[in-house]
Every structure is written in structure tokens, then in C-alpha cells.
Write a structure and sequence with these properties.
The structure is a single chain. The protein is about 45% helix and about 15% strand. It has nine helices and seven strands; from the N terminus they run αβαααββαβαααβββα. The chain has three domains: about 30 residues, no CATH class; about 130 residues, no CATH class; about 30 residues, no CATH class. The two termini are about 30 Å apart.
């Protein structure tokens, strides 16, 4: 806004406009982020075939989408019931099971938050040992292919030091402002990058 000028004010945050007084080049370097109201699945890891999230949690893309798009619940902890881990339930099935066993006898989830919990529980080292043992025992070629794909993915995560639950986003990175500029046009109007509009929509929602 022009209240503070020159580098003697470096590091001060203007109380009028909220901008830090610093070098202009940081507008090309410094990134920001938007904290999301609820987690979302990273589209690269969800939609790329085979789905990396699907491989990691051992669910098909169709099953995964039902959970992420709030169509089905997923069993996170079956407890003492006859439910199975990662079993999908419709709302009617869930209400029926709650009537049968009680609300506190098992745990279910829905949306990206539920998938994040599942990914968070995966121990990549233990999973590698289990998959190698399964590979030795299985005779089905189709099952072997699936196990090999899953093993490669888990090994890649282990070697890179990345955690499986990082495939679910809690924050959206924002690129530096100089890389998505407002360009002045004739008549006092501005041309803006599509990214600015997308970031605005994320914040408003």
C-alpha cells in the first residue's frame, strides 16, 4: 500500500494491508497454502490407473469412489460384529447393523477422512513382509499380478520416506503471486490467471 518504503522496514508487517515489507523477488518464490475444511483425495493418486490409493487400501476404484463421494460407508473397526474390515455399507445397511449390534460396537467412516484413517494405519514394513509371503503361497496369475503391483507401490513409498496418508490433502499449496499475475487492460479492467479464480472458489466453499 506504500505506507512503509525502503529496506530499513524489512520484516515489518503493515498493520493497514497485512503485507510484509521485504524484497520484491519473494513474490516469485514464496508459496502459500489454503487449509481445507475437510480432507480431499489427490486426483493424481485416485484417478491414475491403476488407482494408487485403491492399490494401497486394496479396494477397487469404484468402491473407493463410493466412499469418497459419500455414497457408501466403510467399516474401519468391525469390533465383535460379523462385519469385515473395509466392508462397504449403504445407509440402510448401516442403520440395520446399528440396530442389530448397537452404535458403539463397530466403527464406520465416510469420505476422504475415512480413507485417510485407513491409509494412516498402514505399516509399510509389515505390509511388505505380508505381501511377499502371499506371493509365495498364491498360484493364481491374476492375484500374483495384483500383489506385485501393490508390493511395488508400498516399496516405493517406503524408499521415498513418504507416508501413504499424504495421498489425502488437508491443505492446497498456492503458487507465488508473480506466477499468476493480474494484467491491467484498457478501460481499467484486469486480466487474471484462471488459477486465481480456482483458489478463490476453494476459499469461498
Amino acid at each position: 500500500c506504500g505506507k512503509y518504503k525502503r529496506m530499513k522496514f524489512r520484516g515489518i508487517i503493515c498493520e493497514k494491508c497485512g503485507v510484509e515489507v521485504t524484497l520484491a523477488k519473494v513474490r516469485r518464490e514464496r508459496m502459500g497454502h489454503i487449509e481445507l475444511a475437510s480432507p480431499v483425495a489427490h486426483i493424481w493418486f485416485l484417478k491414475s490407473l491403476p488407482s494408487r490409493i485403491g492399490l494401497m487400501v486394496d479396494l477397487t476404484l469404484k468402491e473407493l469412489e463410493k466412499i469418497l463421494y459419500f455414497e457408501s460407508y466403510v467399516v474401519l473397526e468391525p469390533g465383535t460384529t460379523d462385519l469385515k474390515m473395509l466392508q462397504l455399507l449403504t445407509e440402510d445397511q448401516l442403520m440395520s447393523k446399528q440396530d442389530e449390534f448397537g452404535d458403539d460396537q463397530f466403527e464406520v467412516g465416510i469420505g476422504a477422512e475415512a480413507i485417510k484413517k485407513v491409509l494412516n494405519r498402514i505399516d509399510t514394513d509389515a505390509e511388505k513382509v505380508k505381501l511377499r509371503a502371499d506371493l509365495k503361497e498364491t498360484t493364481s496369475e491374476a492375484k500374483r499380478k495384483k500383489l506385485v503391483k501393490r508390493l511395488k507401490l508400498i516399496e516405493a513409498f517406503g524408499e521415498s520416506g513418504c507416508r501413504p496418508d499424504w495421498m489425502i490433502l488437508d491443505v492446497v499449496p498456492v503458487i507465488p503471486p508473480e506466477l499468476r499475475p493480474l494484467v491491467p487492460l484498457d478501460g481499467g479492467r484486469f486480466a487474471t490467471s484462471d488459477l486465481n479464480d480456482l483458489y478463490r472458489r476453494v476459499i469461498n466453499r
